[in-house]
Amino acid sequence: MFPNLHEAYLDSAFPWAFLPLVLGPRLVRAHFDSLAPEFGHAIVFLARKCPSVKYVSLLMGKDHPPDSMFATMLADAVSLGLQNVERLHLGTPDVVYKPSAILSTLSRMKSLDALILDLESPSTSRLPSIPSRTSLPSLTQLTLESGGPKEVMRIMSCIRDLSNLATFHATLKYGPEDKEADISDMIASLVQTLPETMLSIHLSNVDPTIFAPSPAVFRPLFRFNQLFDLTVNFVFDPPLNDDDMEALSLALPRLKSLSLPLLTGSHAITRTTLQGLATLLRNCRHLSELSLALDLTTATNAAYDALPPWVRNTQITSLSLGNSPMDDPAFAARHLLRLIPRLSSLPEYNGSDPNAGVWEEVERLVKQHASRVPTQTLLV
Description:
The chain is built from 12 helices and 14 strands. It has helices at about 20, 40-50, 70-80, 95, 100-105, 150-155, 180-195, 240-250, 275-285, 300-305, 330-340, 355-370, and strands at about 5-10, 30-35, 55-60, 85-90, 115-120, 135, 140-145, 160, 165-170, 200-205, 230-235, 255-260, 290, 320. Helix 2 (about 40-50) runs parallel beside helix 3 (about 70-80) and helix 6 (about 150-155) runs parallel beside helix 7.
């Protein structure tokens, strides 16, 4: 009925019996959302009817049982024509329940470049053992969503070869049973499986305030010294300090983008000062995007103020500091602009925070400075 359709988004409201009327040979992007178990064979039909499809998103409904026939249907679909898919998003409990069966099938998709897996925990606690490890050398991007550290480890334990992977992103969702040791084990599994040539790693927590690991847990990531982009969105206990900034910047000097946790909830404290920021900017000379929490209070930075180092970053124009502690807007603006003379905005501070008024004044001073001649720097 729609032979020229290039993209289809079908959800639980769609009458799946009419699927043959929608899918055609020119379809490039297919999104199946909340797919009921009895219509799991839609992936097979897609493979038969849509030889041009490049992007597939297949999210099963909440009632989809683990150990269903999905792995078999996926294998049939790949045999019938899904080998040319470049980007695949799977959301089904089967991914965690029997990852080896899923991943061994995906290894036959030679054009697969980007893989997104929703790590929905199966309703059963009895998970089959991992019989083998699978090579996925074509992947350059791997994203794991909404699983805890144990689910991430289960997936990584199934993979043997990710030699071309450049980007790894994981958004974690913690349960009350998760411990810091689970985070350490997860990091160890990543270090063991991801190639040393990684360019981008993002590790985020759905609720950063629910769990506060030690910064030392993430130090093994320093092995990836080619990183251009690093996000670690966890609230740390103890908080990050200037020594942590020095260790990170010495280990990852090629960073262009760095995002560390902003202050939130009951963990609204930081021990990183202007000295830590200066060290970071000195050692990571290519930084153009930066987000972190700083203690900008005058008393904490008195020694720094007396003898500030000569450090300049001319790539950063926007700096995310959240609700970092600060008591003197002129003092904060002066030192931030000394370090980052092209700074023009300070996004992401919370307008409902009691400290929001002084941050508005800092941003006013920053924008006032930015309105001058672009090459002019603030003389302090």
